[in-house]
Structures are given as C-alpha cells and as structure tokens.
Design goal:
Elements lengths: L1 H7 L3 H27 L2 H25 L6 H21 L5 H22 L5 H4 L11 H37 L4 H40 L5 H24 L5 H22 L4
Helix pairs in contact: 1-9, 2-7, 2-8, 2-9, 3-4, 3-5, 3-8, 4-5, 4-8, 7-8, 8-9, 8-10, 9-10
Length: 280
Amino acid sequence: MLHFFQDLWEYPFLRNAVAAALLAAVAAGVTGSLVVVRRSTYLAGAVSHSVLAGLGLARLLERRFGIGWLPPMAGAALAAVAAALLLAWLTLRGRHRSDSVLSAVWTGGMALGVSFVAATPGYQDDLMSYLFGSLLLVSGADLLWMLAADLVVLGVMVFCYNRFLAIAFNAELARLRGVSTGCYEVIYYVMTALTVVLLVRVAGIVLAVALLTLPAAAAGLLTRRLDRMMALAVGIGAGVSLLGLALSYGPGWPPGATIVELAIIAYLAVAVGKKLYPRA
C-alpha cells in the first residue's frame, strides 16, 4: 500500500483512478440506495449486461466501417439507456411479467455484445477489460464523462427526491395523490442506467451491480432515512473503492474485484455489528 501513495503523486493514471473511484461512489451511493429500497437489483443487472452490446457495437462500427464518432463509453451509455427505456415500456404497461422481461434484456444484451465483438476484426483485449473493470486505464475524457453523469444523477435527485421517496414506499398512494408515477419510473430507470455505465468503468459489467448495491445495503442497516442512507452509502463506497485501489496496486490484483470484495466485507461487518449490538 505504501507504493501506492508514493506513486500517486508521480503517475497521472493513479490520480485518474482515484478520481474515478470517488466519482463512481457518488452516483452509486445515491442511485444504489433507491435500488436497494425498491428491491430492484435485477433491473441494474439487466442494464449492466446490456452495456456489452453498446461497447461491442461502437468498436464494430469503428474497426469494420471506419465510423469513429461513437466511442465505447458513449455506446455503453446509449445501450444502457435503451435497455432501461425498453424495460420501462414493457413492465410499466403491466402486460408482461417483469422477471421474463428482465431475463430477456439481460441475456439479449450479452448475446448481442458477444456477436458484435466476434464480428469485429482483431483481438478485442481492451473491450474485454470492460467485463471486469479497468480502473487504472481511466482517461481524462472518461473523468469528464463521469463528472457529467454525477451531475445529472445529483440534479435529478434534488428535483425528484420527494416523488422518488413516495413511489419507493407506497406507489399506489402516490398515484392517488396525483403523482405521475409512470413518468418518475422512467426517470428512475434512466438514472439507474447512467449509474451502471459509470460503475462499469470501475468494476466491470460482471461486478457493477455489487458495487451499486452493497454500500447502499450496508448503509440501509445503519439508518432508516433515505437521505442519510444515500450519504452513508457514498461514504462507504468511497472508502472501499480507495482502500481496494490501494491494496490491489502493489500485488497487481484487479482493482474492481478487490473493491467489491471489500464492499462485501463492509456489508457483512455492518450486518454482524447490528446483530451483536442492535441498539447501537
């Protein structure tokens, strides 16, 4: 860990990684708290696995057709938002079972991504890094995109917090009181999609859901207020991300996997602590 702090001031890529981890923790803490409260983890999972389709399509257009205006992260964002809108349209209309729709989007997104990658000339080693994260490869452009996504998530939460709170705990009552629940559901789906794309850069497609939900779940054991839960989730997420990055740097471990492992430990520690000291 000492080498990490020594190299932090020397190498820009390490400073980029730290900034990316902190930016990801903000969006994950805010959106993840809603996901945990609403018990919609499978929504985030379906969206995250659809990201591979956007990544693969962007690289296919670039390598085979010379179309370079769609970078991989932009393709990931478009695919995630498209998947979220599709899920909202199919599930909110009440004509389709949510578990069947989620399964179809989850597996369909991965299948499309694999097909796009297979059709792309050359070996896609950089594209495959998105499966398990590439935190040490974050560029300045990625940081700007992550900052923009954070601002969008925070802005949406500021303006929609009361509606999200009402829908999360009693959607039927909120509807009876005149809240346009369908509109806010779509906003929630899209916000979740943007957050998942942001986390894919840190922990990868496979592990993004864990980083989205575990800090929020740990925070949910410590407080019953949603706003405090969000703040605690941001702090826990930032803590495990920075610690995981520092611990993994020296041995050369995958930082995304180390961060998720620490998130699991943090959640278990909070759960055991609450069991032993329920009044604390």
